[in-house]
Write a structure and sequence with these properties.
By secondary structure, this protein is mostly helical. The protein contains twelve helices and four strands; from the N terminus they run E-E-H-E-H-E-H-H-H-H-H-H-H-H-H-H.
Length: 376
């Protein structure tokens, strides 16, 4: 599993404010160090500050700085600080840090980070990100093996609901966008083809473009913004609420229970949505051909039929299946790696959309090159 990001939670119990520390605290973590909101100390009305570290993993000086700041803020509110719940090493370091008060004006503001420093930080963080991605893909592959053996731990009811959410619920937006894309393709093609009196080839242009790649690409982008972001937000909210930790504690794999059905649902429904998108795109082209180019209805249908081939259809369906897997993978990966705050859920949803669209574009380029090499 990915390392659990640092987080702070609090609870007011009787006359005590209990601060619970979660996750792995690493000063090099790009997600930032969480802080206890100052208004918590003022609104709780407690007389004693206590710490719990049951869910604490590894830690370094970032945790020491955070604990020290909380204790100082609590003392400023007139509260007593009980640090007996901290690990021995952290408790001793906290005592040393609080023994001598900080001198006013001694702290210097850190200089702004330059471009080269930002590039270096990103380069140093890249191996850890790649390890996390590869670990997640490995868990998904193991879950797929369990599914093939009939031992995957997810509920059929949840899977059927996901099929509905990723399939029929997406039909309105897919229909609208695909119809408009087909209409635009036909209009742009007609502007040039009309100069040569070859308006009939608009039908071939729209049919081949939609069936071979455009239908799959537009459907993938729509599903990335609609479903990939939803997957990231759902799993991110479960990470914030510690539901993923609860599943792990119960011996249930979150990847098998949550990620695998979502990926299966998108891989199954994306080709079907793409077929519908192809049909709506060709309908948009038909509208332009009949209304603007004075083509006959049957004439346009015959030209479309002559242009379509099973090879182009299968290439489009392969695009769609690959895009479905990529959208689900990006959305679930960002959700599982989400931090434990509301802002982290928003960032995970945004990252899921961005990485999903980028993955679709890269996969399209790779599949196009492979088709060219194979001569199809």
């Amino acid at each position: 599993m990915l390392s659990i990001p640092p987080a702070i939670s609090h609870a007011c119990l009787d006359d005590a404010l209990v601060v619970t520390l979660h996750g792995v605290w690493n000063i090099a973590d790009r997600t930032g160090t969480p802080r206890l909101p100052p208004e918590v100390l003022a609104s709780c009305g407690a007389r004693v500050l206590r710490f719990r570290t049951d869910a604490l993993g590894g830690w370094d000086s970032s945790l020491l700085a955070c604990v020290t700041a909380i204790v100082r803020a609590a003392r400023a509110q007139g509260m007593d600080a009980d640090v007996s719940g901290l690990p021995d090493g952290l408790r001793r370091l906290t005592g040393l840090a609080l023994a001598v008060p900080e001198r006013e004006g001694a702290r210097r503001d850190a200089p702004p980070e330059g471009l080269l420093a930002a590039i270096g930080r990103a380069a140093l963080a890249l191996p850890a990100s790649l390890r996390g991605i590869l670990a997640f893909i490995g868990e998904v592959c193991l879950a797929a093996v369990s599914l093939a053996r009939g031992k995957a731990a997810f509920r059929r009811r949840d899977f059927l609901l996901l099929l509905q959410e990723t399939g029929s619920d997406a039909l309105p937006i897919v229909s609208l966008i695909s119809f408009l894309v087909g209409l635009i393709l036909a209009f742009v093609g007609a502007v040039q083809l009309r100069l040569f009196g070859a308006q009939i080839y608009v039908a071939s242009l729209v049919a081949i473009a939609m069936v071979r790649v455009m239908g799959a690409i537009m459907t993938g982008i729509i599903m990335s913004g609609r479903t990939g972001a939803a997957f990231a937000a759902e799993l991110g909210s479960m990470q914030v609420n510690e539901e993923l930790d609860a599943l792990t504690t119960l011996g249930v794999s979150p990847v098998e229970h949550l990620v695998l059905p979502r990926m299966l649902a998108l891989v199954i429904m994306m080709p079907l949505l793409t077929l519908w998108a192809d049909l709506m795109g060709m309908l948009g082209g038909l509208t332009v051909g009949v209304a603007m180019l004075d083509l006959g209805f049957l004439e346009y249908l015959q030209a479309t039929r002559d242009a379509l081939t099973l090879t182009n259809l299968w290439i489009g369906l392969v695009h769609a299946a690959v895009f479905g897997a990529l959208v689900a993978l990006c959305g679930c990966l960002q959700g599982m790696a989400c931090g434990r705050s509301a802002s982290a859920v928003g960032k995970a949803a945004t990252s899921a959309v961005v990485t999903g669209i980028v993955s679709i574009v890269v996969a399209t380029a790779i599949i196009t090159v492979l088709c060219d090499i194979m001569g199809i």
